[in-house]
Amino acid sequence: MSILRSGPLRAAADFRLRLRLCFNLWLGLALPATAEAASSPATSGTGGMVVSDSALATEAGIEILRAGGDAADAAVATALVLGVVQNFASGLGGGGFALVFRQTDSRAYALDFREVAPAAASATMFQDSAGLVIAGASTRGPRAVGVPGELAGLFFLHHRHGKLPWAQVVAPALRLARDGFVCPPLLATRLERHLADLKLNPALAVDFLTATGTPHPSGTVIKRRALAGTLQEIARTGADSFYRGALADRIAAAMSNEGGLVTRADLEGYKVIERPTVSISYHGRTVHSMPPPSSGGAVLLQVLRVLEALPLTSYGLSSVAYLHRLAEALKHAFADRAAVMGDPAFTEVPVARLVSDATVDKVRGHFRAYATGSRADYGAGFTLPLDSGTSHVSVIDADGDAISLTTTVNTTWGSGWVAGQTGLLMNNQMDDFVAKPGVPNAFGLIGTAANAIAPFKRPLSSMSPTLVVRDGKIEVVIGASGGPTIITATLQVLIDVLDFELDPRAAVEAQRIHHQWVPEVLTLEPEFAPTLVDALRDRGHTTRTDLRFSAVQVLVVGRDGRLRGAADPSKQGTAAALRP
Ligand code: GLY
Asked: Is residue 500 within 8 Å of 506, Cβ to Cβ?
């Protein structure tokens, strides 16, 4: 592991089946707000704040801030705890992105610790001899695993910006893994839903199932003994053992024994990449978001720019005029995502053009107030060859430094594969590549050669850690989980806060829509008025009502310096602030 510091359809029936699987997957990823709403009230303070989708993780971040740690220390501690108590959505076997803001020079930059395809990966590795994509090959088991980057990224964050000793930052996660934690209701539901998979995997079963093979119910104590041993070693060795020492040997041996592709050399070659953010100005602020290999920033910012000139507040928050235009802008941006986005080390991604005046004007010029178009009408002139396993943390400290950090194992419980006796649940991020052009992945996303599998390449992501800076200071720290709905959910909560001036809690509770161009379906959360849904159908949208599948974690700094934050009610996280 080293740290790099340079910037830079198959038949229709099959397609429908796959779409259905995608939507089922989404349903498995996130639960109805009504069934699981146990969120805390938005909290306020001025001495620093942590928002995450786990109360235990938020507590760990606050513990670290209280001990004198800064935003980086708190974000790292929070993420490490997520990997223990919410491992279905985050963990050291995964990867992520962070946006870092330093008040001293008002500078924001992006940190890319995304998984990388192993050296032995190939463009057709998930296809059979007839060129058909093999169901499940890119999502289950060791071949679905990309070289994990999370530990390298967290270690970088701490090494560069942290104030407390590394072992102190690892301590809350180690303590919870070793001594146990009370199973939160959200984890209990994920255990019940994935019981069959957990039973097949002794390394997960030993931690998460009782002696009789039933899932640990909410309220019982869970210990992660093997993971505790691994965290102990990480507390002592930083990222060294995992990428070039004993842990690397154990991961590589388990991979080799069970048919995986990740080798010790892959681990040793892993690089964290520091990148410039993709940034725009929006109503007098600067909005920074994640550049490629995430599609999140470019899609989010293109849509924001398209909407900026429109009178959104006079349309109204849940108005057909606003939601129709939002859906249209999303269809254009997601069409561009599919056409041209991938790892910038392998494909030229025209980020500047994606958010340029010319593109924005072209998209706006295409808007028809009373109609939507067909799939071929979208994309801003690019040639088109034709709550998930993710978790977000928003942190700010008393000095105004901020971290927006999204980590992922991809789909719920990642690959479902644990590396030997390390307790490390590995990601299935290889599914974020295009297994074959035009064939949708687990999230229903399609793409082109720009996001084909290649050795050492990073799969295209939707993770969108985002920061809003006003007058040189942080105004909003935001991000989300939920596959491609990460982008649409982050975007809508951001608009709700900045344009509609909603309180963070009202913003995360407001009903949301989702459109990703393909499938050609506008998804609406259930509480939109039937008359509004009918009005959108009249404009030609095929609509679908679905439960919430995204979870946004947001904090807002008021003009008076007061911090207000909210964890999305779709998960059971909390926002907590320190009082001065
Ligand atoms: N694995 C989800 C994403 O990166 O978009």
From this structure: no
How far, in Å, is the centroid of ligand 1 from the Cα of 143?
17
Q: What kind and span of H or E run contains 404?
A: strand 402-410
Write down the pTM of the prediction.
Answer: 0.90
Instruction: Give the C-alpha separation, 373 to 354, whole Å.
Output: 20
Domain with CATH 3.60.20.40 in the chain: 7-43+275-372+381-385+463-579
Say which CATH class 7-43+275-372+381-385+463-579 falls into: alpha beta
pLDDT tens digits for 196-225? 999 999 999 999 999 999 999 999 999 999
- Predicted confidence band of residue 370 (pLDDT cuts 50, 70, 90): confident
Q: How many CB atoms lie within 10 A of CB 302?
A: 28
Pocket of ligand 1 (CB under 6 A): 390, 408, 410, 429, 432, 461-463, 483
CA distances from 160 to 100, 105, 172, 365 (A): 11, 15, 21, 45
Which among 286, 390, 485, 488 is annotated as catalytic?
A: 390
Pick the residue whose CA is nearest to atom 3 on ligand 1: 461
Amino acid at 374: S
Assess contact for 554 and 504: CB atoms under 8 A.
Answer: yes
390 is catalytic: yes
Closest C-alpha residue for ligand 1 atom 4? 461
pLDDT tens, position by position, 9-39: 222 333 332 333 333 333 232 322 222 233 4
pLDDT recorded at residue 70: 98
- pLDDT (mean) for 492-517: 97
pLDDT digits (tens, 9 = 90+) for 345-354: 999 999 999 9
Please give the helix or strand (H or E) that residue 159 lies within, else none: helix 150-161
Q: Is the pLDDT of residue 7 over 60?
A: no
- Select from 494, 493, 505, 489 the least CA-distant residue to 573: 505
